[in-house]
Amino acid sequence: MDFNDICRKFISIDSSPGSGNWELVQYAAELCNAAGLFVEIQQENLNGVLQSNLIARPTEGIPPDELMLQTHLDTSDPGPFALWTKTGANPFNASIYQDAIYGLGAADVKLDFLCKLEAVKPFVKAKMKVPFVLVGSFGEEIGMQGAIKLIRKKKISAKRALIGEPSGMKLVRAGKGFGTVEIEIPFSGEEVEYRRNHDLSESSSTQSKIFVGKAAHSSVPEVGDNAIRKMFDYFTKLPDGLMLMEMQGGVSYNTVPANAVLEIDVVGGIKDAIGKKLEKILKVILQVEEDFKNFPDVHFNPPIPTLNFGMVRTFPDHIKLSGCCRVPPTVTNENFENWMSLLRKTCESVGGTFRVTDYKQAFKNQGHSAFLTICQDQLEKMGMTNELATQAVTNEANVFSRFGIECVVTGPGQGVGNSHSPNEHVKISDLNQAIEFYRLVVEKVCL
Asked: What is this structure's pTM?
């Protein structure tokens, strides 16, 4: 198969959070073995889903130093298939239109792994002063567990790393921190009983309303339109004491939700209704978001911290809200903890719970290193811009940099308005540029 066919095959293998990346890693391992690389696979059963890291080197064993070329092989959830109009309503059906290839993971970021593999092929048998290691990891979309496992098991000895993320091949030297949050708000005893008996009544009825927004990556919520926020705004303005039957919306805490559904019964007079609890929590969320404006970092877009609620689900005795918070380096751990403490106390005051299930600090490369200069020089040699950039997204660089690995984040394709959205795509010409850039960096650093 040629490179485009392999790209199609890569996209066709579902590696979203619900499926895991095991099948894709098996195929990637075949490609690495065929290129003459020695492959090691780390397996992990994560919440019943088989996940894997792939580690490929030109020789067996871990050297004292190496250049890491890393890409995560998992993707976000595709969302409603019908919105993938460029792929025949199938996000795994890679489709090429002129110079662009469409499909889930095209830009974010599975095909970047293939670019890196293609780039190192000429050097597999070469004598190297600093060897390379090619890494395909799992769990970037659900907390960077794959990167953490690599560090915990001491599988990497790199001092420098190229981290895959769609940046239009700009060199990213800093990224926002990332925290995942969960809120559970309980129904009152009266509500639980009413909802339990509702469907057994012959005369029961409800009213439903659908809210439509626009999906986007949670790092740039202003690009999307949050359907859950629309639903909350509508629900909290309804008369007090209505019976909430169902709230459903979104597909991932890490994506701006495009759809939400509200179902209510207009019985009225419900005491201690969940709507008032939700309203109190939302007021404090707005208060926290107002304080975000006091911590801008002009090197980022958006410059201030953001809070995205990407998923809400209804259970027999509570509703659960999942989201994520992104913070620039201007936010200290104390700042972050103060915000989270305020939200926790507010949730507890209405009988609910608030949890921060994961937190990764912002990363920022200080100064102008030799490695960064090498990367800039290779882009300049290719006639491309070598300006340094920042990103609001969080990735494995936030993990690796904490352990002394100098990380430069880059990759083909655009993230904003493209990642975590239907009809995600990347230009084939951009993939070819990425191959050439990675080849030049490996040649300069490793030989």
From this structure: 0.80
How many CB atoms are closer than 10 A to CB 167?
23
Handedness of CA 363, 366, 368, 369 (dihedral sign): negative
Distance CA 354, CA 413 (A): 36
CA–CA separation, 161 and 207 (whole Å): 54
Cα 234 to Cα 243: distance, rounded to the nearest angstrom: 14
Secondary structure E strands in 47-154: 49-57, 67-72, 95-97, 100-102, 132-137
What are phi and psi for residue 10, nearest 5 degrees? -60, -45
In 3-state terms, what secondary structure has residue 212? strand
Q: What is the pLDDT of residue 310?
A: 94
> In this predicted model, what pLDDT tens digit does every residue of 222-249 receive, in sequence order?
889 999 999 999 998 888 778 899 999 9
Residue range 28-79, pLDDT digits in tens: 999 999 999 999 999 999 888 999 999 999 999 999 999 999 999 999 999 8
How far is 231 from 238, CA to CA, in rounded Å? 11
Total H helices, total E strands in the chain: 11, 21
Question: Which residue reads 């690599």 in tokens?
Answer: 150
Segments in the chain below pLDDT 70: 201-204, 268, 367
5's CB contacts (< 8 A; 6+ apart) are: none
Q: Rounded distance, CA 438 to CA 127, Å?
A: 18
Distance CA 225, CA 442 (A): 41
CB atoms within 10 A of CB 334: 7
Q: At what angle do helices 428-446 and 110-120 cross, to 10 degrees?
A: 50
Which of 233, 242, 236, 248 has the alpha carbon at shortest distance from 264?
Answer: 242
Q: Pick the closest to residue 418 from 226, 253, 219 (CA basis).
A: 219
